[in-house]
Design brief:
By secondary structure, the chain is α/β, with parallel strands linked by helices. Helices cover 40% and strands 19% of the residues. The protein has ten helices and twelve strands. The strands form three sheets. Strands 3-2-1-4-7 form a five-stranded mixed beta sheet. It has a five-stranded mixed beta sheet with strand order 10-9-8-11-12, with helices on both faces. α3 crosses α10, α5 crosses α7 and α7 packs across α8. The model has no long low-confidence stretch (mean pLDDT 93).
């Protein structure tokens, strides 16, 4: 193996993953992973990050000396200037964790630090659904709703590092309470938990639920039921797609991107769900962006954060 190499480290609430990424945006080996175990505290978490960096180089047979830079992507909220995780809700009791400083000090390598959804957007822009395009927007659909905006190969971070928070655009004024503490956010309506909550409400309105809806169920089951012809589930999923289409139209009016992609667990729901998002976007956007902006599925799957973190590292030494 030869050329420049970068390490991408993607920190999630359940699992942290790492891999060496080539200068062409390809994984040099399969990612290595460890459980995040947030309850064991941030010191343990940082120690596991350092181990994963070492394991990633071992997995593809290169030395740390061959690594040009390291990139780490973590859940928000973050302080991008200081490289600090602030108080991520899925990683309690972590608070004010100086991730970038810890990694840079351990390995003496240039180290990039980025919000995980932003990193995924940069990865998709580099070698995924937005490759070859100058403007690209990613929505990530899952436990939360994340997003990122890439213009001319650079992330739109904003003056205070909070640009691209697409999950918290207001979709219904004074609407549902969001996990962020505010009301009416897109995330409060279309994340996995919200899909389940809205399904329960729809079932209550429809009368006694059938056997399949007694007890606990997941957003994935709601999507599957909609595909199988369950009218109540189909209504909830149609409304989910409508709201995502409205959010996409809002982005078109602000950014006018060439491509908007949808990734994350719920985006695997299939082509009909994506088609419904496209229809809603066209109905709510100006004619020109609606016709010219391509809405498509993200391509990198679970490796988007790793590749995106590596892309941040790559830009760090190029700037």
């Amino acid at each position: 193996m030869s050329g420049r190499y970068f390490i991408g480290l993607d920190i999630g609430g359940t699992t942290m993953k790492s891999a060496v990424v080539t200068d062409a945006g390809r994984l040099a080996s399969q990612p290595v992973s460890r459980p995040t175990e947030p309850s064991r505290g941030p010191a343990h978490g940082v120690a596991m990050m350092l181990e994963l960096v070492r394991e990633a180089t071992t997995a593809c047979g290169i030395s740390l000396e061959s690594v040009a830079a390291i990139g780490v992507a973590t859940p928000g909220p973050v302080d991008l200037v200081r490289g600090v995780m602030l108080n991520p809700p899925n990683l309690k009791p972590w608070r004010d964790v100086p991730v970038r400083e810890a990694i840079a000090a351990e390995f003496s390598k240039p180290t990039a630090f980025q919000n995980d959804a932003n990193a995924a957007a940069l990865g998709e822009s580099w070698v995924g659904a937005g490759r070859g395009r100058r403007s690209f927007v990613l929505f990530t659909l899952g436990t939360g709703i994340g997003g990122g905006i890439v213009l001319d190969g650079r992330l739109l971070e904003g003056a205070h590092g909070h640009g691209g928070e697409l999950g918290h655009v207001k979709i219904v004024p004074d609407g549902r309470l969001c996990a962020c503490g505010r009301r009416g956010c897109l995330e409060a309506y279309v994340n996995a938990g919200a899909v389940v909550a809205r399904m329960r409400e729809a079932l209550a309105d429809a009368g006694p639920p059938g056997e399949r809806w007694r007890g606990e169920f997941t957003a994935e089951q709601v999507f599957a039921a909609a595909e199988a012809g369950d009218a109540t589930a189909a209504g909830v999923i149609a409304d989910t797609a409508r709201l995502l289409g409205v959010a996409a139209a809002n982005v078109m009016h602000v950014v006018d991107p060439e491509v908007i992609a949808f990734g994350g667990g719920m985006a695997a729901a299939g082509s009909r769900f994506l088609d419904a998002i496209r229809r809603a976007a066209r109905e709510n956007a100006f004619a020109v962006p609606a016709e010219r902006c391509e809405i498509r599925a993200a391509e990198l799957g679970t490796t988007a954060g790793i590749i995106g973190a590596a892309a941040c590292a790559r830009q760090l030494i190029a700037s």
